[in-house]
Amino acid sequence: xxxxxxxxxxxxxxxxxxxxxxxxxxxxxxxxxxxxxxxxxxxxxxxxxxxxxxxxxxxxxxxxxxxxxxxxxxxxxxxxxxxxxxxxxxxxxxxxxxxxxxxxxxxxxxxxxxxxxxxxxxxxxxxxxxxxxxxxxxxxxxxxxxxxxxxxxxxxxxxxxxxxxxxxxxxxxxxxxxxxxxxxxxxxxxxxxxxxxxxxxxxxxxxxxxxxxxxxxxxxxxxxxxxxxxxxxxxxxxxxxxxxxxxxxxxxxxxxxxxxxxxxxxxxxxxxxxxxxxxxxxxxxxxxxxxxxxxxxxxxxxx
Length: 303
What we know:
Elements: H1 2-14, H2 17-29, H3 39-47, H4 60-77, H5 94-115, H6 119-150, H7 155-163, H8 173-190, H9 209-212, H10 218-243, H11 250-274, H12 283-302
Helix pairs in contact: 2-11, 3-10, 4-5, 4-10, 5-6, 6-7, 6-8, 6-12, 7-10, 8-10, 8-12, 10-11
């Protein structure tokens, strides 16, 4: 029960802070003041108090997209350990459920975009579906590496074996570093960050995720923003779980875990400040290259 409450507290309380850290990092690098760190908290408060504007052409699918996009990260958080806090739900093969829960959220987000009948949103949905296909192999190869190292098929045991810190001093260290790097690239792709997508753009030829949610408003759009922030936290937690050893002191480890999440957000901000968005024809090349790099990490374990 303690782990359950702790996971929900970190998920709901900390996740809106990460986009604020990214925005503030980009502003500092650019020499601007930028929005406050708590900007997303304020935006969510405003959106949840507004009314909905619904098109007459939409059906229940349009409303289901934001709800499922919000519920899936909550369920996913219960399967993923947060540093020293073990996942409240754990069973053999839970990593498969974890991956396809987010596939379910993406499926309904795409359906909600198509439900509007807009060819513009259909274009973004097609791009989202295409790029997600190229991301999944990297995630599964990364999990296969963790299964190989831990000898277990549950996320608790897989990340728990790495969290001891001993593996970072063993021959598996290079494979873990490659895996963490690949998962960081996946984080950028899955959360629609530069160089794959720009969450701040509204140019027709470059939009991917943002174009799919243009018709959402009020509380529905608030659920989308909250779900996106929670997904960013979970993606960051996977990287942190690979790199941050656990000392055994719960309070110290949780503080270090939260600090590491904020550092990941800073790293994302630095990447977005140093790079431009890739041309669409280059995105598949980068994602395929990431998959090949993760396979290389697996080969290092098999030699």
